[in-house]
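Bug report (template v2)

What were you trying to do?
Predict the complex of my protein with zinc ion.

What happened?
Run completed; filing so the output is reviewed.

Input:
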Amino acid sequence: MTPKSLLLNLHASSTHNTPVFKKDDLEDGVQAEANRDGTIFVNSKMSDKKIAKAVEHEKVHLEQMAQGRLQYSDDSVTWKKDTRSPARVYKRVDMNEGHPDFEWEAEAYKK
Ligand SMILES: [Zn+2]
């Protein structure tokens, strides 16, 4: 993407530290995504109200990543409840990602 098209897709809920980009090519059923570089992608088809809610949720995941507790890779999710807990690795193919029973999701849904 060119810098110009990036700017055009910037959503109003963006902040200096957390740019929010509207995307029309997220995987099926995905509303939003938190990225390792501190950006958030949201599904451009959602209403602003829904986007705002999704952004709040994804910001919790960004915090968890910054704390070194949550890591996403292409095929796995690694979670440490706190710095003393052993890391648990979940294969993305086997899991129902985004399910509120996962501890990192429970924290984000509580927000
Ligand atoms: Zn989540």
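What did the reviewer find?
The first strand starts at residue 20 and ends at 23. The pocket of zinc ion is lined by residues 57, 61, 98, 105, 108 (CB under 6 Å).
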